[in-house]
Write the structure tokens for this entry.
Amino acid sequence: MIVTNQITRLPSNKLKSVCLLGYYGAENFGDEILLGSTIALLDSVESFKINIFTGNEKITAKQYPFYKAIPKFNFLEVITALINSEALILGGGSIFQDVSSLKSVIYYSSVVFLAKMLGKKIIFLSQGIGPLRSYWAKFFTQCSCQMADWITV
């Protein structure tokens, strides 16, 4: 209930279209729960057109048939979705970490940077940070956080 009250105060409470970015579509139970919770939270506030950037379009489309599943590495589709949305929401988890790879931090930071360059709101919703071991992971994460319009951790 508290989270619902928080989201109504988000700069996005009048948005009609958003993009969700996380570690979705990898069949990781925790991240899929976070995606479902984020969608439920958004739906409880207002009806949004939701684009989900996913690692597996078929799985995500089957699980969420009323929303658009976009392959997260298809940059043409990602850019198109961002252009047609008002905000990018990074929904939960600790996607800014370099334990598994620095590439993930670079990817997520790149999408944040692109969204900001397109003039979109950036919202980190219940986002975990770290561990960050390398200089570059810390640098890219710090830059991404500075571009955010609203952050909860």
Observations:
- The beta strands are 17-21, 49-54, 68-71, 87-96, 121-129, 150-151.
- Residues 20 and 52 are 5 Å apart (CA to CA).
